[in-house]
Amino acid sequence: MSEEKVQSVTIEEFRKLDFSNVTLVDLREPDEVLIKGIEGAINIPFSKISSDLSSLPKEKPIYVFCRTGDFSEEVTEILLDRGYQAYNVEGGYEAYQKYLEEHPVRIDAKGLKCPGPIVKVADTLRGLPDGQKIFVEATEDAFASDIQVWCERTGNQLLSLEVKPGLIEATIEKSQTNKKSETVQGFAELPNGKTFVVFSGDLDKTIAAFIMANGAAAMGREVTIFFTFWGLNILRKPKKVKVKKSLVEKMFGFMLPRGTTRLGLSRMNMGGMGAKMIRWIMKEHNIQSLEELIQQAIDHGVRLVACQMSMEIMGIRQEELIDGIELGGVATFLGSGEKSDMSLFI
């Protein structure tokens, strides 16, 4: 046996590790892991150590834990003897779970407007381990309903929700049972993506489309926005781009709004004054601008597709579109729609 002393790490030290750079070994029985576990950990029940231990990779340090820490030290010693760089996790999974419960992550979503609070919760949870609790404070009344539905649809657990005058407090536990799709026994997985067809180039309708798209992305859904005809104006760069066009195409380009800052309202536009008023009101109420909503959508993987046939009709070239835009046709839209449980025409 190796003379090397078993090194142990505390739960505090274990929690600070980047789990992507280490190998985690969970010695608990499979039924225990199924209920509560650490994502990415290799499950080798203590009863199968003799046959399964040799399959572990040696490229990364190994951290071993069991339920209470009774067996992990012994297994760590065996790994050291076999040439692994191994560490024992003191207290095991129970101590880890207790630490997560006693050290909730706090999220300040006060003052944020839809979809800001939900997006902030989703972004924070994405980098946290399963079992981690978060405490959220928000001031938007709609958050009380939104957070309940969001937890229900993503599989995270809403442990508490308290609505106070001017303040909503929620405690959430990240769950390993996050649901990417619904499954019905005996049938294929049901789709849960969201597809939006943006036909309108109106500012108010565009804002609504991107609020819903960002909310869907925060729920972990695959989102596609398909822009056609007047909706293509949303994707145009604000500054003129020199491209070769026919006379008719140049006339279209001159008459159509170039980019989001030139969009008008569907009602009460008043020669552009209505759009300016809406933007001012949004800023006063701490609501993200359309430009911020678009960038947020891109950052969260929302797929933005421009209808190439409509582009050709309206004389719009790909060089005139903002970065990150795909070109597609009817099959692209229909393919996305078939993977969605909701398609909206705006």
**Class from secondary-structure proportions:** alpha/beta
Q: How many whole angstroms does the radius of gyration measure? A: 26 Å
The CATH topology annotation of the largest domain reads as Hypothetical Protein Ychn, Chain: A
- Proportion of helical residues: 25-40%
Strand content: 15-25%
Extended strand count: 14
User: How does the overall form come out from the CA principal axes?
Assistant: elongated
Individual helix count: 13
User: What number of domains?
Assistant: 3
How would a textbook summarize the main sheet?
A: 5 strands, parallel
Main attributes of the structure:
346 residues; alpha/beta; Oxidized Rhodanese, domain 1; Translation Initiation Factor IF3; Hypothetical Protein Ychn, Chain: A; 3 domains; 5-stranded parallel β-sheet; 13 helices; 14 strands; elongated
Can you give a write-up of this model?
A 5-stranded parallel β-sheet has the order 1-5-4-2-3. It has a 5-stranded parallel β-sheet with strand order 13-12-11-10-14, with helices on both faces. A 4-stranded mixed β-sheet has the order 6-7-9-8. Helix content is 35%, strand content 19%. The protein is elongated and about 80 Å long. The protein has helices at residues 11-15, 30-35, 49-52, 72-81, 92-102, 116-126, 143-154, 203-218, 247-255, 273-284, 290-299, 308-314, 330-338, and strands spanning 8-9, 23-26, 42-43, 62-65, 86-89, 105-109, 133-138, 157-164, 167-173, 193-198, 223-227, 303-307, 326-328, 340-345. Strand 2 (23-26), helix 2 and strand 3 form a beta-alpha-beta unit. By secondary structure, the chain is α/β, with parallel strands linked by helices. The protein folds into 3 domains: 8-99, Oxidized Rhodanese, domain 1 (3-Layer(aba) Sandwich), CATH 3.40.250; 104-173, 2-Layer Sandwich (Translation Initiation Factor IF3), CATH 3.30.110.40; 193-345, DsrEFH-like (Hypothetical Protein Ychn, Chain: A), CATH 3.40.1260. It has 13 helices and 14 strands.
